């Protein structure tokens, strides 16, 4: 895949992720978040099987021969991080609006260098700290603090952003070492589905009629977001450096907010809009400033 193709893949992936918030929000009218995630990611797993069989099955053996144990470790880690991130995000949508969930989710961008510092001792660029400040200020304006329910939802999304950060970091490590994006997509969607099944069986009911009534949302979130979009993400990160990819992925909040306004009539007030802009500005600041410094050297 060429660099322009990877850019297109990243934009398409971001659009799918942003608009999937609508499917996630409306998909819980008749079923709970655990059942939704179980079915969503299992559908994503099934959707990826034909792609794997026709495009990657022959080459995957060669890829795995490099270091099978390393590949399994990274793939399982990615699956667990995705499970925790997606589950927290899904539950959070019961308590907060789509725009809040989408914009607070992109906190993962300035979180990444901080986590990388603690995991791998890589230096943190100074631009991360004003970026974090802008994101926190934006979250304050975006969250309605007088509403305890919304506070709970936004807190869950903030924790979810931490696991998205880990998912992004480990995806970056994996694509540097192995060229098997569809296989990774298969593994992670299967792990998320199986892990989501446990709380679904414990706390919710699988009612086939209700699941079928939400089939459009499940198919959209499963086939496009749970399956194809994550593979597009892996392809994109193969040929795009972390900075432009993070900037493109941060537009997820914009797509989600616009879609929520058009489809769900979730209108943001002035404070909310300013909050969204501050979070987006913080994310972009943390990515663009280090690149400007490099270009001057």
Describe the structure.
The protein has 297 residues and is mainly alpha-helical. The chain has one domain. 84% of the residues lie in helices and 0% in strands. The protein has 14 helices and no strands. Helix 2 (33-55) packs antiparallel against helix 9 (181-203), helix 4 packs across helix 9 and helix 9 (181-203) packs antiparallel against helix 11 (215-239). The protein is globular, with a radius of gyration of 19 Å. The model has no long low-confidence stretch (mean pLDDT 84).
Task: Looking at this protein, list some descriptive labels.
297 residues, globular, 84% helix, mainly alpha
Quickly give the structural class: mainly alpha
Largest sheet: none
β-strand amount: under 5%
DSSP strand tally: 0
Mean pLDDT: 84
Tally of helical runs: 14
Poorly predicted residue ranges: none
User: Whole-number radius of gyration?
Assistant: 19 Å
Taken in chain order, the helices and strands follow as: HHHHHHHHHHHHHH
Helix coverage percent? over 70%
Domain count: 1
**Which geometry do the CA atoms define?**
globular
Termini separation: 30 Å
How is this fold's topology laid out?
Elements lengths: L2 H24 L6 H23 L1 H10 L1 H25 L5 H8 L2 H13 L7 H15 L5 H30 L3 H23 L4 H6 L1 H25 L2 H8 L2 H12 L6 H27 L1
Helix pairs in contact: 1-11, 1-13, 2-4, 2-9, 2-11, 4-8, 4-9, 5-8, 5-13, 6-7, 6-8, 7-14, 8-11, 9-11, 12-14
In short:
With 297 residues, the chain is mostly helical. The chain is built from 14 helices and no strands.
């Amino acid at each position: 895949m060429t660099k322009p193709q990877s850019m297109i893949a990243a934009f398409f992936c971001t659009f799918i992720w942003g608009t999937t918030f609508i499917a996630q929000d409306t998909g819980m009218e008749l079923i709970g978040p655990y059942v939704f995630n179980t079915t969503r990611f299992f559908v994503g797993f099934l959707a990826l099987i034909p792609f794997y069989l026709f495009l990657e099955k022959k080459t995957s053996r060669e890829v795995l021969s490099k270091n099978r144990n390393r590949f399994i470790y990274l793939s399982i880690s990615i699956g667990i991080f995705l499970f925790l991130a997606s589950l927290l995000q899904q539950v959070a949508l019961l308590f907060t609006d789509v725009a809040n969930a989408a914009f607070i989710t992109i906190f993962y961008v300035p979180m990444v260098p901080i986590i990388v510092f603690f995991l791998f001792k890589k230096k943190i660029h100074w631009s991360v700290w004003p970026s974090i400040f802008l994101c926190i200020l934006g979250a304050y304006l975006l969250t309605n603090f007088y509403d305890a329910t919304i506070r709970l939802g936004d807190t869950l999304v903030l924790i979810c952003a931490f696991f998205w950060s880990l998912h992004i970091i480990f995806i970056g490590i994996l694509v540097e070492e192995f060229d098997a994006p569809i296989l990774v997509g298969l593994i992670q969607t299967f792990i998320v589905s199986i892990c989501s099944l446990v709380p679904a069986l414990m706390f919710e009911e699988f009612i086939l009629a209700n699941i079928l009534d939400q089939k459009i949302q499940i198919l959209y979130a499963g086939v496009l977001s749970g399956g194809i979009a994550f593979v597009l993400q892996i392809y994109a990160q193969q040929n795009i450096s972390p900075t432009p990819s993070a900037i493109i992925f941060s537009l997820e909040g914009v797509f989600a907010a616009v879609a929520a306004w058009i489809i769900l009539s979730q209108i943001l007030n002035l404070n909310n809009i300013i909050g969204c802009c501050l979070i987006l500005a913080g994310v972009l600041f943390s990515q663009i400033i280090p690149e400007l410094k490099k270009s001057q050297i």
